[in-house]
Amino acid sequence: QVQLVESGGGVVQPGRSLRLSCAASGFTFSTYAMHWVRQAPGKGLEWVAFISYDGSKTYDVDSVKGRFTISRDNSKNMLYLQMDSLRAEDTAVYYCAKAKRLQWEKDVFDIWGQGIMVTVSS
Amino acid sequence: DIQMTQSPSTLSASVGDRVTITCRASQSISTWLAWYQQKPGKAPKLLIYDASSLESGVPSRFSGSASGTEFTLTISSLQPDDFATYYCQQYNSYSFVFGPGTKVDIK
User: Residue B106 above 90 pLDDT?
Assistant: First the structure.
């Protein structure tokens, strides 16, 4: 079945780096745009970053510009989020999510991973 | 940047009630609007996309509508499994903004 599984979370000190991974299975990964979405404890959903199906386009939310980088390896069916210069306010559950329609960029998210916790604390 | 608002922020209702949640966009997003349901500790689940299209497998008691920049999610007869938080999201631009959420709890 279609599945997304995140890994790489944990506790990290402010200013340090962490890389999240998302393993995709059950669909042709290379033909769908992908996203990262986060949710701080007790708060709502915040879209973080987008990458087109072929990796040629990326966009991210202003609060992570210059610090987070989204990337993908279509040969391995993997999505990544490199998070540098982490701050306390980056503490959240991070979800990877799949766009619904083939090669669409501005699209809904139909499949989500289970989420992975990232805690930024000294 | 597009801003999304939702009302109410909390809604208390009983099983069998008809429930309506409203989402407003700060500018035109055509019908590029989705609704998600989230339960505590779980990932969001897509309910409605393109403002009024029902996602496969979602019960028909859920419906969506649009009028200009105002969007509505309706649950025709609230069921015990529907107590959750609901989020709208625009995907007209590359900002993919979510609304702040509406929590539906038991009256």
Answer: no
For residue B107, give the DSSP letter.
-
- State the greatest distance between any 2 C-alpha atoms of chain A, in Å, as a whole number: 42
Distance CA A100, CA A5 (A): 17
Q: Identify all chain B residues contacting A106, using CB atoms and an 8 Å cutoff.
A: 32, 91-94
Chain A residues within 8 A of B94 when measuring between CB atoms:
50, 59, 105-106
pLDDT of residue B85: 98
The token pair that represents B88 in the structure block: 């709208």
Residues 23-52 of A with CB under 8 A from B: 35, 37, 44-47, 50
pLDDT for position B107? 87
Is there a contact between A106 and B91 if contact means CB atoms under 8 Å apart?
Answer: yes
CA distance B102 to B86: 5
Of A97, A121, A80, which is closest to residue A38 (Cα–Cα)? A97
**Contact, A19 vs A118, CB < 8 A?**
no
Query: How far apart are alpha carbons A46 and A44 in whole angstroms?
Result: 7
Tens of pLDDT, residue by residue over A28-73, are: 999 999 999 999 999 999 999 999 999 999 999 999 999 999 999 9
Which residues, numbered 7 to 66 in chain B, qualify as contacts with chain A under a Cβ-Cβ cut-off of 8 Å?
Answer: 32, 34, 36, 38, 43-46, 49-50, 55
pLDDT tens column, A3-26? 999 999 999 999 999 999 999 999
